[in-house]
Design goal:
Number of helices: 11
Shape: globular
Helix content: 25-40%
Strand order of the largest sheet: 1-8-2-3-7-4-6-5-9-10-11
Number of strands: 15
Bound molecules: threonylcarbamoyladenylate, magnesium ion
């Protein structure tokens, strides 16, 4: 086994205290973490990921009360959402205190805060006296990792330690909510569905930024993208245009074996959006490595986690 991969929280803590970089499991995806209050440690994250410096990082906390160490204000709807969904797959964008270095917020006046739910990482965070800045632990623009092995395969040699917490249960990045005028606005669809947010705070605006204004560059049009072509649409129609025996089909529930493709993957044969979300990124990675020319994929129902899954599929397809 790889020497820098294991489940030793104490070792992870010592490395982080010394300014090192550790991959951490969260329930959404694996993160690449460093002491959020140490600009030199955070700079290493940007180097390892080849991430542009204009793209801010999420700060992970282990105690809800510590929001006030890092945020100047915590609007009422943010409090309600934190009460309902933390620890969990929700990032809240709030005005930051100066203790959060500019490199973390990419010079913005705000910071994204999240209390993740994975037990190993929660224990790690609660053992530290600083929060952890962590983007998803993939090279910039590629698919987010949902296992420790995914992290190891792409970035293993450059990371001091990978904390292995098993496969991620949610499988999609956190939902990002800001409060530009005091009211909640969704900037990124993710592991908490819009319908769930609305149960707590009423109607929310969804404003997914695109490349013209990369306020949240996870919102760049091409992102979460495999190297192989991925076409999104009606699988039967698209299959007529290519030699499908060299391609893979990625459907939600339908069995398209009769089309004669080289590979057929169904995200959830029972039609469960949660199961589809959990599997999506690992499936995309394995298809990217499989001996096929490309991937034909279809949209999922545009509700619940289906909206976030469709968003990822659209960005994955944007290059093709
Ligand atoms: O589930 C997740 O959110 C994972 C795990 C590791 O927590 N993290 C993650 O981080 O997906 P990352 O860096 O891959 O995506 C974070 C997104 C980026 O698009 C970034 O631009 C946006 O959050 N973001 C961070 N701080 C922001 C801020 N102050 N204002 C607007 N967007 C922000
Ligand atoms: Mg990312």
């Amino acid at each position: 086994m790889a020497p820098n991969l294991g489940a030793d929280i104490g070792r992870a803590a010592r490395i982080l205290e010394a300014g090192g970089v550790v991959a951490i499991p969260t329930e959404t995806v694996y993160g690449l973490a460093a002491n959020a209050l140490n600009p030199n440690a955070v700079a290493r994250i940007f180097t390892i990921k080849k991430r542009p410096s204009f793209d801010p990082l999420i700060v992970h906390i282990g105690h809800k009360e510590r929001v006030h160490h890092y945020a100047t204000t915590f609007p009422e709807p943010a409090q309600a959402l934190a009460t309902a969904f933390w620890p969990g797959s929700l990032t809240l964008i709030v005005e930051k205190k100066p203790v959060i270095p500019d490199i973390v917020s990419a010079g913005l006046s705000t910071v994204g805060l999240r209390m993740p739910r994975h037990p190993l990482t929660l224990r790690l965070l609660q053992s530290l006296d600083f929060p952890l800045a962590a983007p998803s632990a993939n090279p910039f623009g590629y698919i987010s990792p949902t296992t420790a092995r995914h992290v190891y395969d792409q970035l293993g040699a450059q990371i001091d330690y990978i904390l292995d917490g098993g496969p991620c249960q949610v499988g999609l990045e956190s939902t990002i909510v800001g409060f530009p005028e005091g009211e909640p606005v969704v900037y990124r669809l993710g592991g908490i569905a819009v319908e769930q947010l609305e149960e707590v705070v009423g109607r929310v605006k969804v404003q997914l930024n695109v490349s013209s204004n990369p306020q949240a560059p996870g919102q760049l049009k091409t992102h979460y993208a495999p190297k192989k072509p991925l076409w999104l649409g009606n699988i039967e129609e698209m299959a007529k245009k290519i030699d499908v025996s060299e391609w893979a089909l990625l459907s939600f529930q339908t069995d398209y074996t009769y089309l004669g493709a080289k590979m057929n993957i169904r995200l959830s044969s029972d039609g469960l959006l949660e199961e589809a979300a959990t599997r999506l990124f690992a499936v995309l990675r394995s298809l990217d490595e499989a001996p096929v020319q490309g991937i034909l994929a279809e949209r999922l129902p545009d509700e619940g986690l289906g909206r976030a899954i469709n968003d990822r599929l659209e960005r994955a397809a944007a290059r093709s």
